[in-house]
Design brief:
heterodimer; A: about 180 residues; mainly alpha; globular; B: 3 domains; 9 helices; about 75% helix
C-alpha cells in the first residue's frame, strides 16, 4: 500500500475509480459535480471587476456565475496543489517548457508552442462555457447522472480533439487502433 | 452538523472545494493524464488511458450517484440538451483540447508537475476564452438552447421514463463491455 503513495503512475482503473468515488463525495457534501472551467471564468470576472467594475457587473453571464472565491473557484488551485504533491512524492516534478511530444513534431521553439497552447486554451475556455462544462463537469460529473447533454458534449470534445490531433500529428500508422485496421506504410 | 448545514456553510464549502481539488489533482497526476503525450496519445487513438480513467470514473460515480439519489441525498444537475449548445460547444472545446493537449482540469494538473506551456499558454488562454464567451453569451446562449433541441434529459427519459437504476444497469454493462474490449484488443 505504501508504495502506491510514491508510485509515479497508477493503473488507470484505480485512478478512475478514485475519481468516481470523489465525484460521489462531492455530490454528498456539496450537492454538485466537480467541474473546472467555471474557475477560469470566475478568475476572468475578478480581473474584469478590478479594471472595469461597472461593465463587468452589468454582464449577464457574471450574474449567473458570480466572480467570487468560492467552492467552484477553489477546485482549480486545489488541482495544481494536488498534482504538485503527487509529482513531488514520486520525484517526477520537473520544469518543462515545451512538451517533448510536441517538440518531436514541431521542434523545441517555445514561442511557437506558446502560441499553440494559448490558442488551445482560448478555444477550451470558449468551448467549455458554450457547452456548459468540460471533461470533468460534463465528461465525468454529467455522465454519471446519465445526462444526454453531457454525452453530446463529451462526443464533441473527442470528435473535435481527434480531428485536430490527426491534422497536427498525422495518423500514427501501426499503433493502437491504426495497427488493428492495418494498411498504409 | 447536518448535511444541509454542511452544504449551506459557505466558508466550509470553499474549503471543501480546495480539498476536492487537491484529491482530484493527485488522482489526475497519478493517472498520467496531466501529461500532454497521454492526452495526444488518446486523441490519436493509440493510448487509451484517458478513456479507461473516464469510463471507470463514470462507472463508479454513476453507481454512487444512483445510491445517493435512492437515499434522497442528491439532486440531479442536468442541462436541457441541444446540439446548438452541447455538440457545438463541445466541438470548439475539442479543437482546443487537441491544440493544447490538455483540458481545463488537466491544465491545472500539468502546472502542478512543472509544465510552463500549461501555465503561460493554456491557463492564460482559458481565462481569456471564458471571458470572451461571457461577452457573447447574450447572443450565443439563447441561440444554442433553441437550436437542435433534444427531448430527453437523461438516459432514463430516453428509455421511456424508466427508474434510474433501470438506466444505470445497461450503461454499466456497456461500459464494462467497452473496457473489456479495449483490454482484449490490447489497446
Amino acid at each position: 500500500m505504501l508504495e502506491l503513495l510514491f508510485a509515479p503512475r497508477w493503473s488507470p482503473y484505480l485512478a478512475g475509480a478514485g475519481i468516481g468515488l470523489l465525484m460521489t463525495l462531492a455530490f454528498l457534501l456539496s450537492n454538485r459535480p466537480i467541474g473546472c472551467s467555471t474557475a477560469y471564468l470566475k478568475a476572468r470576472g475578478m480581473l474584469g471587476r478590478l479594471v472595469a467594475k461597472e461593465r463587468t457587473g452589468a454582464m449577464e453571464y457574471y450574474r449567473r456565475f458570480a466572480p467570487t472565491v468560492d467552492w467552484q473557484f477553489m477546485i482549480v488551485p486545489g488541482v495544481v496543489i494536488g498534482a504538485f504533491i503527487a509529482a513531488w512524492l514520486s520525484g517526477t516534478f520537473a520544469i518543462e517548457l515545451v512538451p517533448p511530444f510536441w517538440a518531436e513534431r514541431f521542434g523545441g521553439s517555445f514561442p511557437l508552442r506558446w502560441v499553440a497552447a494559448l490558442s488551445g486554451g482560448i478555444l477550451l475556455g470558449f468551448g467549455s462555457r458554450w457547452a456548459g462544462g468540460c471533461t470533468s463537469g460534463h465528461g465525468i460529473g454529467g455522465n454519471i447522472q446519465l445526462s444526454i447533454a453531457s454525452m453530446l458534449a463529451s462526443a464533441g470534445f473527442f470528435i473535435g480533439g481527434i480531428l485536430i490531433s490527426l491534422a497536427l500529428f498525422g495518423i500514427p500508422w501501426g499503433q493502437g487502433v491504426w495497427g488493428l485496421v492495418g494498411g498504409a506504410p | 452538523m447536518t448535511l444541509e448545514e454542511i452544504r449551506q456553510n459557505r466558508p466550509l464549502q470553499t474549503g471543501l472545494g480546495l480539498a476536492f481539488g487537491i484529491v482530484f489533482g493527485f488522482l489526475l497526476e497519478r493517472g498520467g493524464v496531466t501529461e500532454h503525450a497521454v492526452i495526444w496519445g488518446q486523441l490519436l487513438l493509440y493510448d487509451f488511458t484517458v478513456v479507461k480513467i473516464m469510463l471507470s470514473a463514470v462507472l463508479v460515480g454513476m453507481i454512487g450517484f444512483a445510491i445517493l439519489r435512492s437515499l434522497g441525498l442528491a439532486e440531479p444537475h442536468v442541462a436541457d440538451p441541444s446540439l446548438g449548445t452541447h455538440l457545438a460547444g463541445g466541438l470548439i472545446f475539442g479543437l482546443g483540447f487537441g491544440l493544447l493537449g490538455l483540458c481545463p482540469g488537466t491544465v491545472a494538473g500539468a502546472i502542478g508537475r512543472g509544465s510552463i506551456d500549461a501555465l503561460v499558454g493554456g491557463a492564460v488562454g482559458l481565462v481569456i476564452g471564458t471571458g470572451l464567451f461571457a461577452t457573447v453569451y447574450p447572443r450565443i446562449g439563447p441561440w444554442g438552447a433553441r437550436t437542435g433541441r433534444l427531448p430527453w434529459r437523461t438516459v432514463s427519459d430516453l428509455l421511456g421514463g424508466v427508474n434510474l437504476w433501470l438506466a444505470v444497469v445497461p450503461v454499466a454493462v456497456l461500459i464494462l463491455v467497452v473496457l473489456g474490449a479495449l483490454e482484449y484488443l490490447g489497446l
